[in-house]
Specification:
Layout: E1 4-11, H1 14-19, H2 23-36, E2 40-48, H3 57-67, E3 75-78, H4 81-84, H5 88-101, E4 105-108, E5 117-118, E6 131-132, H6 136-166, E7 178-185, E8 189-196, H7 200-213, H8 218-227, E9 235-238, E10 245-249, H9 256-263, E11 271-272, E12 282-283, H10 292-299, E13 303-308, E14 311-316, E15 352-357, E16 363-369, E17 376-379, H11 380-391, H12 398-446, H13 450-482, H14 484-496, H15 498-502, H16 508-516, H17 525-530, H18 537-540
Parallel strand pairs: 1-2, 1-3, 3-4
Antiparallel strand pairs: 5-6, 7-8, 9-10, 11-12, 13-14, 15-16, 16-17
Helix pairs in contact: 5-6, 7-8, 7-10, 12-13, 12-14
Length: 564
């Protein structure tokens, strides 16, 4: 009976298995070798796994199969020693001895490994010391050579990649929203950078814009991006053992978790920070998709980029949310909305507010103050009537209203460019879904299998739902554009009716902050009565003839305490 042999075909990586020393080529060469030796090919073990690891899952399967006496394996055949191991002579001799103890020998098709010799064979005896491999020195040389080659090659390749990464170039797969592009540089030759992906980049910029500049929740942002047609990048799904293509992955909608991972990556602001830079931020040789200000606002304190643009720094805030509910007395009592925004007429400090209880148990709410001076107070009703009366005396002039309208239109034009892009993406998404739905309908008409028909009908209904959502998102974008004139009219109306802009009795907690917007400095109560408080520059424009857009900006030092 012919000796039984197994074939070991191994590649170190997916790229090598596809482009280099392919598994199919190794198996064909080993099969020819077995035929020439008049052995019987029992089984083939093709797999992709590094030869440097001490623990190798698929390689261990080969060893255990050969050690099983029921399989009656005599030889393990491979192309060369580097396919068997790249762990050097120590690892090679350990594996060889393990197989020899099970009565299994190893062979390479190049003939480096030769048959063992028993110096006592002529005497009919065999001892441990009498059996040796005449090719062992060559075998260990080849094993060490394979190990040295890997070390030298990886040191040269990865070392160069680390060096260029620290200079600001990109040496990995492109992040979502980017594609790799080679550029010719003066100092570093041909190098790789990231440039915006024609479609993915618009989704990423929309995510940052909405999270930085809108009041939408993360769930609402995710739902909005999905209606625009967002889907993750597709990739080829490969068999974990052989790395052959077995399907396709990716192409899934956005999730909150994935969105939060996207916004936390500094590369989108043109900053590289990873293990190859020792977690130190490096200014990239390419532009990000958003500016640093937008990146910081979108991350809301969890990741902050600061420092000089050429020497950036990254600070990480707490990623944990404290869910404990602690009951505290609020400093802001909705019953007294102006207590933190009016000063005492005697000492010019912020006044207090509370309700005293009379002899009959009746409460008398009032604003008051008495720190280091005689007690001063005024009833809540009288004080607020005087405040509202003063607000009704404030009025913007015609020049300011015209300037406001012009500025409003200018900002709208900038935002309209973004709206047009988003509307176009939503329209493309609708068209793609309609094409898929038409294809599904054709398949339903032609199929003869009832099971397949039901599955296709479910897909058709799902597509119909997605089309309705996508159309709704597209209409919403178009409606936003149409509502601009109405928005301007409403804004102008508020300018002409100042009391409706600054007075919000339905939301008491808004009263104080809105009231404070009218002043350059917080007013004393007596100044309100006399009509002599220092109004903010916005309202002081009443007395000016020539207005400029710079006067619409709040001056440094004036911080209106609006919610959020």
């Amino acid at each position: 009976m012919a000796d039984r042999a197994v074939i070991l075909a191994r590649a170190s990586s997916s790229k090598q298995a596809i482009e280099g020393d392919t598994l199919d080529e190794q198996m064909l060469q080993c099969s020819d070798f077995i035929i020439k030796q008049s052995w019987t090919e029992d089984r083939t073990f093709p797999f992709v796994e590094s030869g440097r690891k001490k623990e190798r899952e698929y390689f261990e399967e080969v060893i255990k199969y050969c050690e099983d006496p029921h399989n009656q394996i005599k030889y393990v055949v491979f192309k060369n020693i580097s396919r068997f191991t790249r762990g050097g002579d120590e690892a090679y001799l350990h594996l060889k001895k393990r197989l020899n103890d099970a009565g299994v020998e190893i062979r390479d098709i190049y003939g480096t490994i030769r048959e063992s010799v028993n110096t006592m064979e002529s005497y009919g005896k065999k001892y441990d010391w009498s059996t040796y491999s005449p090719s062992q020195s060559d075998e260990t040389y080849q094993a060490n050579r394979a190990k040295d080659f890997v070390r030298d090659a990886l040191t040269q390749m990865i070392g160069a990649e680390i060096t260029y990464t620290r200079k600001g170039y990109w040496n990995r797969r492109p992040a979502y929203g980017f594609i790799n592009q080679k550029i010719e540089t003066t100092e570093d030759g041909l190098r790789n950078i990231l440039v915006p992906h024609p479609k993915e980049s618009e989704y990423v910029m929309t995510i940052f814009d909405l999270r930085a500049n809108s009041a939408m929740s993360d769930i609402e942002i995710v739902q909005y991006l999905n209606t625009m047609g967002y889907c993750s990048r597709t990739f080829k799904r490969r068999d974990p053992r052989t790395k052959k293509v077995i399907g396709k992955g990716g192409g899934v909608p956005l999730t909150v978790k994935w969105m939060q991972q996207i916004i936390a990556r500094p590369v989108y602001a043109g900053i590289i920070c990873e293990s190859w830079t020792q977690q130190k931020p490096v200014r990239a040789k390419f532009d990000g998709l958003v500016d640093i200000g937008t990146f910081n606002r979108a991350n809301r304190g969890k990741v902050v980029i600061s420092g000089n643009i050429n020497e950036p720094q990254i600070k990480y805030g707490s990623r944990l949310i404290d869910t404990r509910i602690v009951k505290r007395r609020s400093r802001d009592n909705p019953m007294y909305p102006f207590k933190n925004f009016i000063l005492c007429p005697i000492c010019s400090n912020k006044i207090h507010a509370s309700a005293s209880t009379g002899k009959r148990g009746v409460k008398f709410p009032a604003y008051h103050h008495s720190k280091n001076h005689k007690y001063w107070s005024v009833s809540k009703k009288v004080a607020e009537d005087n405040i509202y009366a003063f607000i009704r005396r404030i009025k913007f002039n015609e020049d300011f209203i015209k300037l406001f309208e012009a500025t409003f239109l200018e900002v709208w034009k900038e935002q309209r460019v973004s709206l047009i892009k988003e509307s176009r993406l939503a329209g493309e998404h609708v068209n793609n879904l309609l094409a898929k739905q038409a294809s599904a309908l054709d398949s339903i008409k032609t199929t003869t299998s009832e099971m397949v028909r039901k599955a296709l009908e479910l897909d058709f209904e799902l597509l119909d739902t997605q089309i309705k959502e996508a159309r709704s998102a597209r209409v919403s974008k178009e409606q936003n554009e149409l509502n601009v004139k109405l928005s301007i009219k409403y804004a102008v109306y508020l300018m002409e009716h100042t009391e409706e802009l600054l007075i919000d009795t339905d939301n008491p907690m808004q009263q104080g902050p809105l009231f404070a917007l009218a002043f350059d400095e917080l007013p004393r109560y007596d100044e309100l009565i006399n009509g002599t408080p220092k109004l903010s520059p916005i309202f002081s424009l009443n007395a000016k003839q020539n207005l400029s857009k710079s006067e619409l900006v709040t001056p440094i030092g004036f911080e209106p305490m609006l919610p959020g």
